[in-house]
Write a structure and sequence with these properties.
- This is Resolvase/invertase-type recombinase catalytic domain-containing protein.
- The structure is a single chain.
- By secondary structure, the chain is of the alpha/beta class.
- The chain has a single domain (4-142), classed as Rossmann fold, CATH 3.40.50.1390.
- The protein contains 4 helices and 6 strands, in the order E-H-E-H-E-H-E-H-E-E.
- The protein has helices at residues 25-38, 59-71, 91-103, 121-131; strands at 9-17, 41-49, 76-81, 107-110, 132-136, 139-142.
- It has a 4-stranded parallel sheet with strand order 2-1-3-4, sandwiched between helices.
- 28% of the residues are buried.
- The mean pLDDT is 81.
Length: 149
C-alpha cells in the first residue's frame, strides 16, 4: 500500500464573489502560485457568484466536491482557498461546507492560514500527515520523541 505522503496532491481552487465589486482574480492567482510552489497539480478552479455565493447549497462548490470525489482516487485531494472567508464568513456555515470536502476524503487548506483555529481538524491532520507515515486507511503512525511515563 502506498503511503498517503507519497501520493500526488491534486488541488481544487475555490473562491466566491459575493458582490459585483468583489473579484476573485488575484486570490485565484495567489492560490495557483501557492500550489505551483508546493508542486501540487491544479485540477481547476470553481467560483460561485452573487446570491449563490452565500447560500449553503452552492452550484460550483457542489460541482467541485463531486469532481474531487471522482478525480481524487489514488491522490491526496485539497480544496485550496486564499483565506477561510472564501468558503464562508460564518464559522458554522464554513464548517458545514468543509465537512463536505472531508466526506470525500479531502482537506481544506488556506493560503493565508492566519484565521484558522489552531485546533482545527485540517490543521491537525496536515501536521500528522507531515510528521507520520500512513500504515493503513485512517491510521497514521507518528513518531514520538518525547519522554514516556
Amino acid at each position: 500500500m502506498d503511503s498517503d505522503a507519497t501520493k500526488p496532491i491534486l488541488a481544487f481552487i475555490y473562491d466566491r464573489e459575493v458582490t459585483a465589486e468583489d473579484s476573485a482574480g488575484y486570490r485565484i492567482l495567489a492560490c495557483r502560485q501557492f500550489a505551483r510552489e508546493l508542486g501540487w497539480t491544479v485540477a481547476g478552479q470553481w467560483v460561485d457568484r452573487g446570491s449563490n455565493a452565500v447560500a449553503l447549497r452552492r452550484t460550483f462548490w457542489t460541482g467541485m466536491v463531486a469532481t474531487m470525489e471522482h478525480e481524487g482516487r489514488e491522490r491526496r485531494i485539497i480544496c485550496l482557498v486564499a483565506d477561510w472567508h472564501r468558503i464562508a464568513f460564518d464559522e458554522a456555515a464554513r464548517n458545514t461546507l468543509r465537512q463536505t470536502v472531508s466526506d470525500v476524503g479531502g482537506v481544506c487548506v488556506a493560503v493565508s492560514d492566519e484565521q484558522a483555529p489552531e485546533n482545527s481538524r485540517d490543521v491537525v491532520m496536515r501536521r500528522l500527515r507531515a510528521s507520520g507515515k500512513q500504515v493503513g486507511p485512517g491510521a497514521t503512525l507518528v513518531r514520538h520523541d518525547g519522554a514516556t511515563a
